[in-house]
Amino acid sequence: MLRNIPLKGYEGRNRPPPIKLHNEKLPGGALAVAQHIRLQPYIYHLLGLSEGGDLLELHSILHKINEYVQADKISTADPQKFQDLLVDYFEKRKNCSEEFPTFTKLVPKSHFMEHYPDLMTKFGPFNLYWTARGEAKHRTFVNFAESAKNFINITRTFAVKNQAQLASR
Description:
Elements: H1 10-13, H2 30-47, H3 54-69, H4 78-99, H5 116-123, H6 132-148, H7 154-167
Helix pairs in contact: 2-3, 3-4, 4-5, 6-7
């Protein structure tokens, strides 16, 4: 079903891979997983599922959390709404783990989500200070270093290769 959904632009490049029943987590990179979560309500609609208990509600809550995290703008009431949503998420997750024994356990880093509403209040929308663009640029320079295999004057190598890449665009 994921293959048949028309996606364009970055969405098409980060199309979520098909899910295999024996996988414990969603396959793909961060953007593919975010796409999967964003498309989940649409898939449920196509399957004709409107009610399905805690698991469907958990997916719905996860979708809403994803929307808050990726929002361009937030209002003053959004951090409190987001806090309430996180409380619901942790409750539903606990219910799902009790109902489905094979449901994956919550990883310790999920605890950081509890701090998101405070960060949202202090700093604004997350996309204003996320690090993915910096990490992508770092990956470019790592690739330059690996392909050049010249570490005598690595900063010069980086400067020359980066300028050549920018000039070729």
